[in-house]
Amino acid sequence: MQYDAVIIGAGASGLMCALTAGDRGRKVLVIDHANKIGKKILISGGGRCNYTNMYAEPANYLSKNPHFCKSALSRYTQWDFQALVDKHNIPWHEKTLGQLFCNQQSSDIVEMLVEECRNSGVAVRLKASLSHVKWSEISESFLLETTLGKIHCKSLVVATGGLSFPTMGASGLGYELAEQFGHHLIERQPGLVPFTMDKQWLAHFIELSGVSADVIVSCNGQSFRESVLFTHRGLSGPAILQISSYWRAGNKVSMNWLPGISIEEWLNELRESKPKAEFRSVLSDKLTRRLATALCTFGELKKLTRSGSKPINQFSPPELKRLAESLESWIFMPAGTEGYKKAEVTLGGVATDNISSKTFESQNQSGLYFIGEVLDVTGHLGGFNFQWAWASGYCSGLYI
Ligand code: FDA
Q: What does pTM read for this prediction?
Protein backbone atom coordinates (compact mmCIF):
# COMPACT_ATOMS: atom_id res chain seq x y z
CA MET A 1 0.00 0.00 0.00
CA GLN A 2 1.19 3.48 -0.81
CA TYR A 3 0.01 6.75 0.76
CA ASP A 4 1.22 10.32 0.68
CA ALA A 5 0.80 10.47 4.43
CA VAL A 6 0.06 8.06 7.25
CA ILE A 7 -1.14 9.49 10.55
CA ILE A 8 -0.86 7.37 13.68
CA GLY A 9 -3.73 8.26 16.00
CA ALA A 10 -7.37 8.99 15.13
CA GLY A 11 -7.70 11.47 17.98
CA ALA A 12 -8.19 15.22 17.96
CA SER A 13 -4.91 16.29 16.33
CA GLY A 14 -4.66 13.31 13.96
CA LEU A 15 -8.14 13.81 12.52
CA MET A 16 -7.60 17.56 12.09
CA CYS A 17 -4.30 16.93 10.32
CA ALA A 18 -5.93 14.28 8.12
CA LEU A 19 -8.87 16.40 6.97
CA THR A 20 -6.61 19.37 6.24
CA ALA A 21 -4.20 17.28 4.15
CA GLY A 22 -7.06 15.42 2.49
CA ASP A 23 -8.57 18.75 1.48
CA ARG A 24 -5.31 19.50 -0.32
CA GLY A 25 -5.71 16.34 -2.37
CA ARG A 26 -3.22 14.25 -0.43
CA LYS A 27 -3.83 10.52 -0.14
CA VAL A 28 -4.07 10.05 3.62
CA LEU A 29 -4.46 7.01 5.89
CA VAL A 30 -5.16 7.30 9.62
CA ILE A 31 -4.31 4.25 11.75
CA ASP A 32 -5.52 3.73 15.30
CA HIS A 33 -5.32 0.69 17.55
CA ALA A 34 -8.52 1.63 19.35
CA ASN A 35 -11.92 0.29 18.38
CA LYS A 36 -13.49 3.75 18.04
CA ILE A 37 -12.48 7.10 16.56
CA GLY A 38 -11.72 9.97 18.94
CA LYS A 39 -12.31 8.13 22.21
CA LYS A 40 -10.93 10.96 24.34
CA ILE A 41 -13.09 13.49 22.54
CA LEU A 42 -16.10 11.32 23.35
CA ILE A 43 -15.43 11.30 27.11
CA SER A 44 -14.21 14.90 27.28
CA GLY A 45 -15.93 17.74 29.08
CA GLY A 46 -18.17 15.37 31.01
CA GLY A 47 -19.59 14.09 27.69
CA ARG A 48 -20.12 17.56 26.21
CA CYS A 49 -16.57 18.26 24.96
CA ASN A 50 -15.09 21.57 25.98
CA TYR A 51 -13.72 21.90 22.46
CA THR A 52 -11.99 25.29 22.69
CA ASN A 53 -11.67 28.45 24.74
CA MET A 54 -12.55 31.98 23.67
CA TYR A 55 -9.46 33.33 25.41
CA ALA A 56 -6.91 30.77 24.20
CA GLU A 57 -3.44 32.30 23.93
CA PRO A 58 0.15 31.09 24.41
CA ALA A 59 0.09 32.01 28.12
CA ASN A 60 -2.35 29.14 28.66
CA TYR A 61 0.28 26.53 27.78
CA LEU A 62 3.17 24.91 29.65
CA SER A 63 6.25 23.88 27.70
CA LYS A 64 10.00 24.02 28.16
CA ASN A 65 9.89 26.36 25.18
CA PRO A 66 6.91 28.68 25.79
CA HIS A 67 7.35 30.24 22.33
CA PHE A 68 6.86 26.99 20.42
CA CYS A 69 3.05 27.04 20.51
CA LYS A 70 2.71 30.66 19.33
CA SER A 71 2.87 30.16 15.59
CA ALA A 72 0.25 27.40 15.31
CA LEU A 73 -2.11 29.04 17.81
CA SER A 74 -2.05 32.24 15.78
CA ARG A 75 -2.51 30.48 12.42
CA TYR A 76 -5.43 28.29 13.54
CA THR A 77 -7.36 30.07 16.25
CA GLN A 78 -10.32 29.19 18.45
CA TRP A 79 -12.47 31.17 15.99
CA ASP A 80 -11.35 28.99 13.11
CA PHE A 81 -12.48 25.90 14.99
CA GLN A 82 -15.68 27.66 16.02
CA ALA A 83 -16.37 28.39 12.34
CA LEU A 84 -16.10 24.65 11.63
CA VAL A 85 -18.50 23.89 14.49
CA ASP A 86 -20.94 26.48 13.12
CA LYS A 87 -20.59 25.12 9.58
CA HIS A 88 -21.89 21.80 10.95
CA ASN A 89 -24.70 23.53 12.89
CA ILE A 90 -23.54 22.04 16.18
CA PRO A 91 -25.29 23.82 19.06
CA TRP A 92 -22.86 25.17 21.65
CA HIS A 93 -22.61 27.46 24.66
CA GLU A 94 -20.03 29.23 26.80
CA LYS A 95 -20.06 27.56 30.19
CA THR A 96 -17.70 29.79 32.13
CA LEU A 97 -14.34 31.55 31.65
CA GLY A 98 -14.63 31.36 27.84
CA GLN A 99 -14.98 27.56 27.81
CA LEU A 100 -17.02 26.50 24.77
CA PHE A 101 -19.00 23.25 25.08
CA CYS A 102 -21.40 21.30 22.88
CA ASN A 103 -24.99 21.71 24.04
CA GLN A 104 -25.74 18.08 23.36
CA GLN A 105 -22.90 15.57 23.22
CA SER A 106 -19.20 15.21 22.44
CA SER A 107 -20.00 12.81 19.61
CA ASP A 108 -21.17 15.88 17.62
CA ILE A 109 -17.50 16.89 17.37
CA VAL A 110 -16.32 13.39 16.43
CA GLU A 111 -19.04 13.10 13.77
CA MET A 112 -18.06 16.50 12.39
CA LEU A 113 -14.41 15.45 12.07
CA VAL A 114 -15.34 12.09 10.55
CA GLU A 115 -17.59 13.78 7.99
CA GLU A 116 -14.85 16.25 7.08
CA CYS A 117 -12.37 13.37 6.71
CA ARG A 118 -14.80 11.43 4.55
CA ASN A 119 -15.38 14.47 2.31
CA SER A 120 -11.63 14.87 1.92
CA GLY A 121 -11.15 11.23 0.94
CA VAL A 122 -9.24 10.26 4.09
CA ALA A 123 -9.11 6.54 4.96
CA VAL A 124 -9.35 5.64 8.66
CA ARG A 125 -8.50 2.14 9.87
CA LEU A 126 -9.23 1.16 13.47
CA LYS A 127 -7.88 -1.79 15.50
CA ALA A 128 -4.71 -1.42 13.48
CA SER A 129 -1.26 -1.18 14.96
CA LEU A 130 2.24 -0.45 13.90
CA SER A 131 5.19 -2.68 14.77
CA HIS A 132 8.12 -1.17 12.87
CA VAL A 133 9.06 2.06 11.10
CA LYS A 134 12.02 2.44 8.75
CA TRP A 135 13.11 5.36 6.59
CA SER A 136 14.50 4.47 3.18
CA GLU A 137 17.05 6.93 1.78
CA ILE A 138 16.66 5.38 -1.67
CA SER A 139 12.91 5.83 -2.04
CA GLU A 140 12.85 8.80 0.36
CA SER A 141 9.85 7.32 2.10
CA PHE A 142 8.90 5.43 5.23
CA LEU A 143 8.24 1.73 5.31
CA LEU A 144 5.72 0.84 8.00
CA GLU A 145 5.04 -2.67 9.17
CA THR A 146 1.50 -2.79 10.44
CA THR A 147 -1.29 -5.25 11.12
CA LEU A 148 -2.71 -4.02 7.78
CA GLY A 149 0.47 -5.10 5.98
CA LYS A 150 3.43 -3.12 4.67
CA ILE A 151 2.71 0.52 3.95
CA HIS A 152 4.91 3.07 2.16
CA CYS A 153 4.43 6.79 2.79
CA LYS A 154 6.29 10.04 2.21
CA SER A 155 5.04 11.64 5.42
CA LEU A 156 4.50 10.00 8.78
CA VAL A 157 2.59 11.95 11.44
CA VAL A 158 2.77 10.90 15.08
CA ALA A 159 -0.49 11.96 16.74
CA THR A 160 -0.61 9.35 19.49
CA GLY A 161 -1.45 11.73 22.36
CA GLY A 162 -0.25 11.39 25.96
CA LEU A 163 -0.24 8.66 28.60
CA SER A 164 -3.34 9.63 30.52
CA PHE A 165 -6.42 7.43 30.57
CA PRO A 166 -4.72 4.23 29.35
CA THR A 167 -8.18 2.67 29.08
CA MET A 168 -8.90 5.08 26.21
CA GLY A 169 -6.04 3.82 24.03
CA ALA A 170 -3.11 5.86 25.37
CA SER A 171 0.30 4.34 24.66
CA GLY A 172 3.96 5.29 24.65
CA LEU A 173 4.44 4.60 20.93
CA GLY A 174 4.85 8.27 20.03
CA TYR A 175 7.67 8.69 22.55
CA GLU A 176 9.40 5.52 21.29
CA LEU A 177 9.26 6.78 17.70
CA ALA A 178 10.63 10.14 18.80
CA GLU A 179 13.58 8.42 20.46
CA GLN A 180 14.12 6.17 17.44
CA PHE A 181 14.67 9.30 15.35
CA GLY A 182 16.93 10.99 17.87
CA HIS A 183 14.48 13.31 19.64
CA HIS A 184 14.78 13.64 23.36
CA LEU A 185 11.91 13.57 25.79
CA ILE A 186 11.02 16.09 28.47
CA GLU A 187 10.16 14.33 31.72
CA ARG A 188 6.52 13.26 31.64
CA GLN A 189 4.09 13.43 34.51
CA PRO A 190 0.33 13.47 34.96
CA GLY A 191 -1.23 16.94 34.59
CA LEU A 192 -4.72 18.29 35.32
CA VAL A 193 -5.02 15.61 37.98
CA PRO A 194 -6.57 15.39 41.48
CA PHE A 195 -4.32 15.41 44.56
CA THR A 196 -4.24 12.60 47.08
CA MET A 197 -3.69 13.48 50.76
CA ASP A 198 -2.11 11.61 53.66
CA LYS A 199 -4.07 9.53 56.18
CA GLN A 200 -4.02 12.10 58.97
CA TRP A 201 -5.37 14.84 56.71
CA LEU A 202 -8.00 12.52 55.25
CA ALA A 203 -9.13 11.36 58.68
CA HIS A 204 -10.12 14.95 59.39
CA PHE A 205 -11.47 16.10 56.01
CA ILE A 206 -13.02 12.94 54.56
CA GLU A 207 -16.41 13.92 55.94
CA LEU A 208 -16.31 16.91 53.55
CA SER A 209 -16.23 14.59 50.55
CA GLY A 210 -18.43 16.21 47.89
CA VAL A 211 -18.17 19.74 49.37
CA SER A 212 -16.81 22.46 47.08
CA ALA A 213 -15.79 26.10 47.51
CA ASP A 214 -14.55 29.00 45.40
CA VAL A 215 -10.85 29.54 46.23
CA ILE A 216 -7.57 30.86 44.94
CA VAL A 217 -4.98 28.13 44.87
CA SER A 218 -1.27 28.85 44.39
CA CYS A 219 1.95 26.89 43.83
CA ASN A 220 5.33 27.70 42.27
CA GLY A 221 4.34 31.24 41.32
CA GLN A 222 1.03 30.31 39.64
CA SER A 223 -2.45 30.99 40.97
CA PHE A 224 -5.92 29.99 39.82
CA ARG A 225 -9.29 31.18 41.09
CA GLU A 226 -11.78 28.37 40.57
CA SER A 227 -13.54 25.82 42.75
CA VAL A 228 -11.97 23.13 44.91
CA LEU A 229 -13.75 19.86 45.66
CA PHE A 230 -13.08 17.56 48.62
CA THR A 231 -12.97 13.89 47.60
CA HIS A 232 -12.66 10.70 49.61
CA ARG A 233 -8.97 10.51 48.58
CA GLY A 234 -7.98 14.18 48.70
CA LEU A 235 -8.76 17.27 46.67
CA SER A 236 -10.04 17.83 43.16
CA GLY A 237 -12.11 20.39 41.25
CA PRO A 238 -10.94 22.82 38.56
CA ALA A 239 -8.67 24.83 40.89
CA ILE A 240 -6.78 21.71 41.95
CA LEU A 241 -6.55 20.27 38.42
CA GLN A 242 -5.10 23.56 37.19
CA ILE A 243 -2.49 23.90 39.92
CA SER A 244 -1.52 20.21 39.70
CA SER A 245 0.24 20.97 36.41
CA TYR A 246 2.60 23.32 38.27
CA TRP A 247 3.09 21.07 41.31
CA ARG A 248 6.05 18.76 41.83
CA ALA A 249 6.38 16.07 44.53
CA GLY A 250 7.23 17.65 47.88
CA ASN A 251 5.86 21.11 47.02
CA LYS A 252 3.44 22.84 49.35
CA VAL A 253 0.25 24.38 47.96
CA SER A 254 -1.47 27.46 49.33
CA MET A 255 -5.22 28.09 49.36
CA ASN A 256 -7.11 31.34 49.92
CA TRP A 257 -10.50 30.37 51.31
CA LEU A 258 -12.02 33.84 50.94
CA PRO A 259 -10.98 35.21 47.55
CA GLY A 260 -12.08 38.63 46.46
CA ILE A 261 -12.13 40.25 49.88
CA SER A 262 -9.55 41.70 52.24
CA ILE A 263 -9.83 39.16 55.05
CA GLU A 264 -8.13 41.41 57.59
CA GLU A 265 -10.56 44.27 56.87
CA TRP A 266 -13.48 41.88 57.12
CA LEU A 267 -12.26 40.61 60.54
CA ASN A 268 -11.70 44.15 61.79
CA GLU A 269 -15.23 45.14 60.74
CA LEU A 270 -16.57 42.13 62.65
CA ARG A 271 -14.89 43.43 65.81
CA GLU A 272 -17.33 46.35 65.56
CA SER A 273 -20.41 44.65 64.13
CA LYS A 274 -20.35 41.20 65.79
CA PRO A 275 -17.85 41.44 68.67
CA LYS A 276 -19.25 38.51 70.62
CA ALA A 277 -19.75 36.13 67.70
CA GLU A 278 -17.64 33.01 67.71
CA PHE A 279 -15.16 32.82 64.85
CA ARG A 280 -16.65 29.56 63.52
CA SER A 281 -20.06 31.20 63.23
CA VAL A 282 -18.81 34.22 61.22
CA LEU A 283 -16.75 31.94 58.98
CA SER A 284 -19.88 29.85 58.37
CA ASP A 285 -21.52 32.99 56.91
CA LYS A 286 -18.86 33.00 54.20
CA LEU A 287 -18.30 29.25 53.70
CA THR A 288 -20.66 26.37 54.48
CA ARG A 289 -21.04 25.44 58.15
CA ARG A 290 -19.46 22.02 57.58
CA LEU A 291 -16.44 23.49 55.84
CA ALA A 292 -16.01 26.28 58.40
CA THR A 293 -16.16 23.76 61.26
CA ALA A 294 -13.65 21.42 59.63
CA LEU A 295 -11.23 24.30 58.96
CA CYS A 296 -11.54 25.64 62.50
CA THR A 297 -10.73 22.27 64.05
CA PHE A 298 -7.55 21.57 62.09
CA GLY A 299 -3.94 22.73 62.20
CA GLU A 300 -3.05 26.34 62.86
CA LEU A 301 -6.63 27.60 62.70
CA LYS A 302 -7.55 25.21 65.51
CA LYS A 303 -4.87 26.73 67.75
CA LEU A 304 -5.61 30.31 66.77
CA THR A 305 -9.38 30.10 67.18
CA ARG A 306 -9.77 27.53 70.02
CA SER A 307 -11.46 25.19 67.53
CA GLY A 308 -13.55 28.10 66.27
CA SER A 309 -15.10 28.91 69.65
CA LYS A 310 -13.11 32.09 70.33
CA PRO A 311 -15.26 35.26 70.12
CA ILE A 312 -14.09 37.90 67.69
CA ASN A 313 -13.52 40.56 70.40
CA GLN A 314 -11.01 38.29 72.17
CA PHE A 315 -8.54 38.37 69.28
CA SER A 316 -5.80 40.99 69.63
CA PRO A 317 -5.01 42.99 66.45
CA PRO A 318 -1.84 40.90 65.78
CA GLU A 319 -3.87 37.71 66.30
CA LEU A 320 -6.49 38.91 63.81
CA LYS A 321 -3.73 39.65 61.33
CA ARG A 322 -2.35 36.11 61.78
CA LEU A 323 -5.83 34.67 61.43
CA ALA A 324 -6.32 36.57 58.18
CA GLU A 325 -3.00 35.24 56.91
CA SER A 326 -3.95 31.66 57.82
CA LEU A 327 -7.20 31.89 55.84
CA GLU A 328 -5.49 33.58 52.94
CA SER A 329 -2.51 31.21 52.76
CA TRP A 330 -3.84 27.91 54.06
CA ILE A 331 -1.00 25.51 53.37
CA PHE A 332 -1.33 21.86 52.48
CA MET A 333 1.10 19.28 51.19
CA PRO A 334 -0.34 16.75 48.72
CA ALA A 335 0.81 13.18 49.27
CA GLY A 336 0.72 12.68 45.50
CA THR A 337 -1.67 12.67 42.56
CA GLU A 338 -4.21 10.20 41.24
CA GLY A 339 -1.77 9.47 38.38
CA TYR A 340 -2.37 8.83 34.70
CA LYS A 341 -5.54 6.88 35.29
CA LYS A 342 -7.29 10.10 36.32
CA ALA A 343 -5.10 12.79 34.70
CA GLU A 344 -6.60 14.69 31.78
CA VAL A 345 -3.20 15.26 30.20
CA THR A 346 0.48 14.36 30.20
CA LEU A 347 2.95 17.12 31.00
CA GLY A 348 6.26 16.99 29.12
CA GLY A 349 6.73 14.68 26.14
CA VAL A 350 8.62 15.03 22.87
CA ALA A 351 11.01 18.01 23.22
CA THR A 352 10.16 20.78 20.79
CA ASP A 353 13.85 21.64 20.14
CA ASN A 354 14.24 19.86 16.83
CA ILE A 355 10.69 20.29 15.58
CA SER A 356 9.52 23.11 13.35
CA SER A 357 6.87 25.21 15.07
CA LYS A 358 5.55 26.13 11.62
CA THR A 359 5.24 22.71 9.95
CA PHE A 360 5.72 20.33 12.91
CA GLU A 361 8.27 18.42 10.86
CA SER A 362 11.22 16.84 12.61
CA GLN A 363 14.56 18.48 11.88
CA ASN A 364 16.19 15.08 12.45
CA GLN A 365 14.17 13.19 9.87
CA SER A 366 12.44 14.73 6.89
CA GLY A 367 8.84 13.60 6.42
CA LEU A 368 8.35 12.84 10.14
CA TYR A 369 5.87 15.03 12.08
CA PHE A 370 4.78 15.22 15.74
CA ILE A 371 1.53 16.94 16.73
CA GLY A 372 -0.88 17.30 19.65
CA GLU A 373 -0.34 16.14 23.18
CA VAL A 374 2.61 13.86 22.44
CA LEU A 375 4.67 17.07 22.21
CA ASP A 376 5.93 18.96 25.24
CA VAL A 377 3.02 21.43 25.09
CA THR A 378 0.26 21.18 27.70
CA GLY A 379 -2.71 23.47 28.07
CA HIS A 380 -4.57 24.67 31.12
CA LEU A 381 -7.97 23.21 31.87
CA GLY A 382 -10.79 24.74 29.83
CA GLY A 383 -10.61 23.68 26.17
CA PHE A 384 -6.98 24.69 25.67
CA ASN A 385 -5.70 21.16 25.07
CA PHE A 386 -8.14 20.57 22.24
CA GLN A 387 -7.28 23.97 20.77
CA TRP A 388 -3.63 22.86 20.69
CA ALA A 389 -4.63 19.58 19.02
CA TRP A 390 -6.69 21.44 16.37
CA ALA A 391 -4.00 24.08 15.75
CA SER A 392 -1.04 21.69 15.51
CA GLY A 393 -3.13 19.25 13.46
CA TYR A 394 -4.22 21.94 11.01
CA CYS A 395 -0.75 23.47 10.57
CA SER A 396 0.96 20.12 9.99
CA GLY A 397 -1.83 19.13 7.58
CA LEU A 398 -0.77 22.02 5.33
CA TYR A 399 2.68 20.51 4.82
CA ILE A 400 2.43 16.71 4.79
P1 FDA B 1 -5.67 11.87 21.50
O2 FDA B 1 -5.49 11.20 22.82
O3 FDA B 1 -6.91 12.63 21.24
O4 FDA B 1 -5.50 10.81 20.33
C5 FDA B 1 -4.44 9.89 20.30
C6 FDA B 1 -4.90 8.69 19.49
O7 FDA B 1 -3.77 7.86 19.26
C8 FDA B 1 -5.92 7.84 20.24
O9 FDA B 1 -7.05 7.64 19.41
C10 FDA B 1 -5.18 6.56 20.53
O11 FDA B 1 -6.02 5.40 20.48
C12 FDA B 1 -4.15 6.52 19.41
N13 FDA B 1 -2.98 5.73 19.75
C14 FDA B 1 -2.20 5.84 20.84
N15 FDA B 1 -1.23 4.91 20.79
C16 FDA B 1 -1.38 4.23 19.63
C17 FDA B 1 -0.69 3.14 19.05
N18 FDA B 1 0.35 2.57 19.67
N19 FDA B 1 -1.12 2.66 17.85
C20 FDA B 1 -2.20 3.22 17.24
N21 FDA B 1 -2.90 4.25 17.76
C22 FDA B 1 -2.49 4.75 18.95
N23 FDA B 1 -9.16 18.75 26.60
C24 FDA B 1 -9.90 19.84 26.32
O25 FDA B 1 -9.39 20.77 25.69
N26 FDA B 1 -11.20 19.93 26.74
C27 FDA B 1 -11.81 18.92 27.43
O28 FDA B 1 -13.02 18.98 27.73
C29 FDA B 1 -11.03 17.78 27.77
N30 FDA B 1 -11.55 16.79 28.54
C31 FDA B 1 -10.80 15.67 28.80
C32 FDA B 1 -11.36 14.66 29.60
C33 FDA B 1 -10.63 13.52 29.87
C34 FDA B 1 -11.21 12.46 30.76
C35 FDA B 1 -9.32 13.36 29.30
C36 FDA B 1 -8.51 12.11 29.56
C37 FDA B 1 -8.76 14.38 28.54
C38 FDA B 1 -9.49 15.54 28.29
N39 FDA B 1 -8.96 16.58 27.54
C40 FDA B 1 -9.71 17.71 27.30
C41 FDA B 1 -7.61 16.48 26.95
C42 FDA B 1 -7.73 16.11 25.44
O43 FDA B 1 -8.56 14.97 25.33
C44 FDA B 1 -6.36 15.80 24.85
O45 FDA B 1 -5.43 16.80 25.16
C46 FDA B 1 -6.47 15.66 23.34
O47 FDA B 1 -7.35 14.61 23.02
C48 FDA B 1 -5.10 15.38 22.73
O49 FDA B 1 -5.26 15.16 21.35
P50 FDA B 1 -4.23 14.21 20.61
O51 FDA B 1 -4.70 14.10 19.22
O52 FDA B 1 -2.85 14.64 20.85
O53 FDA B 1 -4.39 12.80 21.34
A: 0.97
